[in-house]
Amino acid sequence: MAQVDPTQGIRHFDSISKGLDIGSVMMMVNLERATIMESQVMDQAQKMKEINDEIRTTQHFMSEARRLKDIGADHSHAAPFVMPDGSSATMHGYCIHRGIAISDGSKNGWDQFVERMKHRVDNLNSNSQLEMIKLQSLINKRNQAFEMSSNHVNKFSGTLDKIISNMR
User: Would residue 3 count as lying in a domain?
Assistant: First the structure.
């Protein structure tokens, strides 16, 4: 998450005493807010990518469990999953790292394992939906910040145009 320095606003108001008008300071504040929101959007998008990668990995090992059940094999015969970074994950490593009990190799054991994986996918999908709502909210706030900056520029430009036309 982006860290916000609470003294930033104070520095902007110090700028007024250095010759900047209030309009310029407001513009700087709005643009800084938009930049912070952009950083938060990027962080949230990365979080969404990680959840989606986890869902794909879980679904891979769930389908491998179904395949292993059908052929009567244990988890050592599961095909590894190639992670987005190029590394590969084994079913055993995946389950150990996440605290998921792996099947004993029996048909009943594989059925229970598949159910645990379905439950995990459901939880990940729920989390993904909540994170998507957060992402949409951040995008709306970012757009609002850019819109405020744009409106401020338009008002400032309009004011300058009126001043110039009045001087003629």
Answer: no
Residue pair 1/40 in contact by the 8 Å Cβ criterion: yes
Structure tokens of 153? 């520029």
Residue 166 lies in a domain: no
Among 65, 61, 146, smallest CA distance to 111 is for: 65
CA 56 to chain CA mean position, Å: 16
Can you name the residues that pair with 88 across neighbouring β-strands?
82
Angle in degrees, CA 116, 120, 125, rounded to 5 = 150
- Which amino acid appears at position 38 of this protein? E
Q: Nearest 5°: phi and psi at 81?
A: -105, 130
The residue segments making up the domain with residue 119 are 8-46+54-152
Does residue 42 lie in a domain region? yes
pLDDT, tens only, 50-83: 999 999 999 999 999 999 999 988 888 899 999 8
- pLDDT of 114-160, one tens digit each? 999 999 999 999 999 999 999 999 999 888 888 887 887 788 778 87
pTM: 0.72
List the one residue out of 33, 37, 53 whose CA is nearest residue 1: 37
Residue 158: inside a domain, yes or no? no
Count of domains forming the chain:
1
What does the block give as tokens for 48? 């969404």
